[in-house]
Amino acid sequence: MSKLGTLGARLHRGEIGYDFVKNRRIWYGLSILITITAIVGLAVRGLNMGIEFQGGAVFNTPKNTSVSVLKAEEYAEEASGHDAIVQKLGDGSLRIQVAGIDTGAASKIKASLADDFEIDPEQINAELVGPSWGEQIANKAWQGLGIFMVLVVIYLAIAFEWRMAVAAFVALIHDITITVGIYALVGFEVTPGTVIGLLTILGYSLYDTVVVFDSLKEQTKDITKQTRWTYSDVANRSINSTLVRSINTTVVALLPVAGLLFIGGGVLGAGMLNDISLSLFVGLAAGAYSSIFIATPLVADLKEREPQMKALKKRVLAKRAQQEETSRPEAADEAYAGEPGDAAAAVVGPRNQPASRSRGRGRPSGKRR
């Protein structure tokens, strides 16, 4: 831990660091590849929308039902003719979801399930979700996401500048696309919990991005008054100075989410936890990645297009070239190439000090005759 703290302190002071901005084309290419994979998965497989979005029925059996999940799923699919999702709840009851059925079909399915489970039909609680209501929920979810995006862009444009707002918007789109694509590839059900998870990870991603942007804004106040650093150099230093903090917060956030996803959803079989835990896990990881590798390098790209930053970069590079030229061993020889031989020898050769007239004066052993 002490080594990690020392590393963070050295990164913050700029003593060491990795050039994220210089290698931005690698990160751009990697992000484009992942995004294309997510889009292809979304187009080919599509999203497994829950009944809250496409309508259907939910049947809840009594407590301590003896029928297994696989057997209940088989019964529900035979009775409805549609795919069914069965989850075993903590009290031993079963939650059976069947999408794309109407009210009349729900009554028949309920009676068929009661016969298969050998229980009274009144003991099965049926909840119906109409397709129109599910469509309204989906539309409201998209509207809420759109309003969130607009407010974020406006806030960042006011608090920082429009280039940072654009970079943050691109990073958010990047995170959403990857998360939705993973949902399509894995086949997890999309529920209102998924939407909540998306909004949560977008806020977390913005938090990480704003931390870097705030450091970058502070360090570039008077950047045009010096000739030591370009805007990309300062942007890279901002990333490195907050790198350990970003990694620590991401790991701390991922650990409990991983517990929900892999232990709660995988080992314990609590499938309802998968709805929100997968979006949180993928979104948190993608948000941390985009904050470091996408948002800040993109801001540097946009800023370097400004005339002032172009002129600054030209001055910085010229000064660095001059310093490199004067630091070469051959530079001293070239500087005195036109000087007379005695002058050059006097500079580069050994110098003979004249004998001091007072040498030996004041010494105890010195005798003057």
Automatic annotation (TrEMBL):
Its main location: membrane. Residues 358-369 have a biased composition (Basic residues). Residues 113-304 form the Protein export membrane protein SecD/SecF C-terminal domain. It is a multi-pass membrane protein. Residues 317-369 are annotated as: Disordered. The chain crosses the membrane at residues 26-44, 141-158, 165-188, 194-216, 247-270, 276-300. Forms a complex with SecD. Part of the essential Sec protein translocation apparatus which comprises SecA, SecYEG and auxiliary proteins SecDF. Other proteins may also be involved. Part of the Sec protein translocase complex. Interacts with the SecYEG preprotein conducting channel. SecDF uses the proton motive force (PMF) to complete protein translocation after the ATP-dependent function of SecA. This is Protein-export membrane protein SecF. The lineage of its organism: Bacteria, Bacillati, Actinomycetota, Actinomycetes, Kitasatosporales.
